[in-house]
Design goal:
The protein has one domain. About 75% of the residues lie in helices and about 0% in strands. The protein contains 3 helices and no strands. It has helices spanning about 15-50, 55-90, 105-125. The N and C termini lie far apart (about 45 Å).
Length: about 130
């Protein structure tokens, strides 16, 4: 595998494009996580409203699919950090505006990934 090559464009728009991509991953992960939570809770809602007529399989299926979405979103949020850091390390100093915080997007995705893992633990504890 080839090492990351240095960029020679000397244009700060490269950094901003990489940051927009990271934040797009953040939005995607937030949406997937919310969708998974809704799926998981909808199974609980069906169980409460239908009483005994809801099969255990249906509740377990809803829980499993919802949790898969939440865990997948957490993985993507954390993985996108590593992808973004590769890009950051390939940039020249001329491409980074003076005093600009390059890591706020990274912190945002890290927080989202950690919160997704916390949500996973919370939902598992409530299910068992």
């Amino acid at each position: 595998m080839r090492e990351a090559e240095m960029s020679y464009l000397k244009d700060p728009r490269v950094l901003f494009a990489a940051e927009r991509t990271l934040l797009a991953w953040n939005r995607t992960c937030s949406s997937l996580m919310a969708f998974g939570f809704v799926i998981e809770r909808f199974g609980l809602f069906l169980q409460i409203t239908s009483g005994e007529s809801l099969k255990t399989f249906q509740r377990h299926f809803s829980f499993s699919v919802g949790m898969a979405f939440v865990m997948f979103a957490s993985f993507l949020a954390i993985y996108s950090i590593f992808q973004h850091l590769k890009i950051l390390h390939s940039l020249n100093l001329e491409e980074i505006p003076a005093g600009y915080n390059r890591y706020i997007g990274v912190l945002s995705n890290a927080a989202l990934g950690i919160l997704g893992l916390v949500l996973t633990v919370y939902l598992f504890r409530g299910f068992i």
